[in-house]
Design brief:
Elements (H helix, E strand, L loop, with lengths): L4 E5 L5 E6 H7 L2 E13 L2 E9 L10 E2 L2 E4 L11 H7 L9 E12 L2 E13 L14 E8 H8 L6 E8 L5 E8 L9 H15 L1
Parallel strand pairs: 3-8
Antiparallel strand pairs: 1-2, 1-3, 3-4, 3-6, 4-5, 4-9, 7-8, 9-10, 10-11
């Protein structure tokens, strides 16, 4: 995975070459990613879905993250990013079903990792159940949801903690129910401006 080849860009989003994933994160090159946020409605309440990253992940193990996301390889287009949804979640989605929130660029430095992403962000309206998820265990260890109103309040600083509900995989590959309170520290540390942009985009879509 560290040897995957990615396109790299300058500060003006102009493509300047190709580098390995390891080089991209070590040297801090801008690169393309694909993000897909699932949203859904249940009993007149709007929800946003989050993945629990696998404990075996090198970066941010066990933290809450985008429903499905990944790097775009050097030979891929944005449309190819849809593969991340089926690979990680086991749910087949067509690119035409996605709602684009545009490209959100952000930069985060954690230890030796410099993550400078040009994130192609999409929303998918999800109307199925937790039973429909077939997770890629080396990447994802659970799926939870939270009321969008609470998610919004958390990242706008109006709440300190929110309740998530869903399921997680056990070491024996069984599922266990998850219902607990979490704070911003339980999330992958994307820039606050990224979360604010997501909230603004989804709020505009929900009306």
């Amino acid at each position: 995975m560290e040897n995957e080849m990615l396109k790299i860009f300058d500060e003006d989003r102009k493509e300047i070459g190709i580098a390995t994933r390891e080089e991209v994160h070590r040297l801090g090159y801008w690169h393309e990613t694909f993000h897909c946020w699932f949203i859904g409605k249940d009993k007149q309440k709007d929800y946003i879905y989050l993945q629990i990253r696998s404990d075996s992940k090198k970066d941010y193990p066990g933290l809450l993250d985008i429903t499905a996301a990944g790097h775009l390889l050097a030979n891929e287009t944005v449309r190819d990013g849809i593969r991340e949804v089926e690979e990680e979640l086991g749910i087949s989605v067509s690119f035409e079903e996605l709602i684009s929130l545009g490209i959100i660029d952000y930069s985060v430095k954690t230890g030796n990792l410099i993550d400078k992403e040009l994130a192609n962000v999409f929303v998918y309206e999800y109307s199925l159940s937790f039973d429909d998820f077939a997770l890629q265990e080396e990447e994802v260890s659970g799926i939870v949801r939270v009321e969008f109103k609470q998610f919004k309040s958390l990242w706008l600083g109006e709440l300190e903690e929110i309740q998530i509900e869903g399921f997680a995989l056990t070491p024996l590959e069984n599922r266990t129910s998850v219902t607990k309170m979490v704070t911003r520290n339980n999330f992958v540390p994307h820039e606050k401006s990224y979360y604010e942009a997501i909230i603004h985009g989804i709020s505009g879509f929900l009306g």
